[in-house]
C-alpha cells in the first residue's frame, strides 16, 4: 500500500529499495471510514497524513458553531493541522474523512528521524513545504482579489475531480459563497 | 552586514566561521530607497530576499487597477513572489520598499547550491518553509473565521511595530477593511 507513497516521493527524489525500506519503517498505514476524524479540535496532533486513497476535509469550528473549511485533501496530498503538528500544541482544526480513506501516517519524531537519517528526504520535504507555501500564498491572493465566480472557476479548472466528489454545500463553504451562488456559477460554466 | 543573517540562521542551526563564509558567498547585499521596487509584476524574479533592515510590502494589482496587499516583511523576514521564484515564471506580485531597506539576496541557483553543499542549510530552509506554511494556513483561517475587528487585534498583538511603521491606509488594505473602520478599532483598542 505504500507503493503510492514511493511513487509520490520518487517524483522528486529517486530511492533505492533499501532507502525505501528505511522510509517505510517510519510510516504506519490506517484505514478510516467516511465521517471518521483523524484530528479533533482541542486534542493533540500525532501525525501528518499522506492520502493513499480517499478524501479529507480540514475544518475549523468558530465560537458560534459555524464550520469553516480550510482545505480539502485527496490522493497524493499531505494534510494536517500543521501549526499543532510542528509545534506539538493542541489542534485548532479538525481533519475528517469525506470518503472511506486510507492514509500513511508520519509522527513528528518519525519526520525528524527521517530527515536526519536520509538527506534525500529532507530535500523531498523542503520541496513539498515550498509547494505548500506557494499554494497558500495563491489562496490568500485569491481571497484578496477574486470574486466568488472567479474562485469557483479557478477551483473547477485546477481540481475538476473535487467538484464530482465533494458535496456542493461543503464546496460553497470552502469558497466562501452561498450554496445558491455556487449552483448558478456551476450551471453557467 | 551579513551578521544579522548569521544570527538569524544560528537560531536554528549553529555555523562554524568556515560554514558561514560558504553561506555568505551565495548572497549579495543591496540597499534600496523607500518606494523602490525589488520585484515588478510581469517581470522575472531573480531573488528571495532576507530583510536586514527596513520594511517591504508584497502587492498584487488586479485588472481594475486596485491594489491588494498579500504581505508585509520587516527585519529578519524572508519575502519574494515564491511561485514566480521557485518556478522561474513571471511575477504576479510586486515587492516594494516602504522604508529605506537593506536586503540580502539569494538566487534560486544559489539556494539550490547552498542546500546541496551544506545539509545544515537545507535543514534551516525546511524549518523556515514549514514556518511560512503555518503562517499562511493561519492567515487563511483568519479570512474564513474572523471579522475585521478580530483580524486587526490579532495583527496588533502579534506585530505591534507594524502599526507604528505602516501607513494606516495600507494596513486597512492588508486587513480587508476600510480606513475608517481601522481607525475606529485602533482608537478603541
UniProtKB/TrEMBL annotation, chains A, B:
Keywords: Kinase, Transferase
Source domain of life: Bacteria
Keyword Kinase appears in the UniProt entry: yes
Presence of keyword Nuclease: no
InterPro entries: cNMP-bd_dom (IPR000595), cNMP-bd_dom_sf (IPR018490), RmlC-like_jellyroll (IPR014710), WH-like_DNA-bd_sf (IPR036388)
Molecular function GO labels: kinase activity
Positions of the Cyclic nucleotide-binding domain: 31-116
Official protein name in the record: cAMP-binding domain of CRP or a regulatory subunit of cAMP-dependent protein kinases
Organism: Chitinophaga arvensicola
Amino acid at each position: 500500500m505504500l507503493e503510492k507513497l514511493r511513487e509520490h516521493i520518487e517524483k522528486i527524489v529517486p530511492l533505492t529499495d533499501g532507502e525505501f525500506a528505511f522510509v517505510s519503517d517510519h510510516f504506519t498505514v490506517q484505514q478510516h471510514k467516511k465521517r471518521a476524524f483523524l484530528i479533533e479540535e482541542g486534542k493533540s496532533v500525532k501525525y501528518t497524513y499522506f492520502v493513499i486513497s480517499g478524501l479529507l476535509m480540514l475544518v475549523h469550528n468558530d465560537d458560534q458553531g459555524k464550520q469553516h473549511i480550510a482545505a480539502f485533501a485527496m490522493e497524493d496530498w499531505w494534510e494536517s493541522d500543521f501549526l499543532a503538528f510542528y509545534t506539538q500544541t493542541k489542534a485548532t482544526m479538525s481533519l475528517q474523512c469525506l470518503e472511506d480513506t486510507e492514509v500513511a501516517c508520519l509522527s513528528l519524531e518519525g519526520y525528524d528521524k527521517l530527515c536526519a537519517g536520509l538527506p534525500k528526504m529532507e530535500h523531498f520535504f523542503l520541496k513539498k513545504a515550498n509547494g505548500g507555501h506557494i499554494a497558500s500564498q495563491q489562496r490568500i491572493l485569491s481571497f484578496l482579489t477574486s470574486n466568488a465566480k472567479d474562485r469557483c472557476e479557478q477551483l473547477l479548472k485546477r481540481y475538476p475531480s473535487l467538484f464530482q466528489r465533494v458535496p456542493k454545500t461543503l464546496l460553497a463553504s470552502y469558497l466562501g459563497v452561498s450554496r445558491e451562488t455556487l449552483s448558478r456559477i456551476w450551471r453557467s460554466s
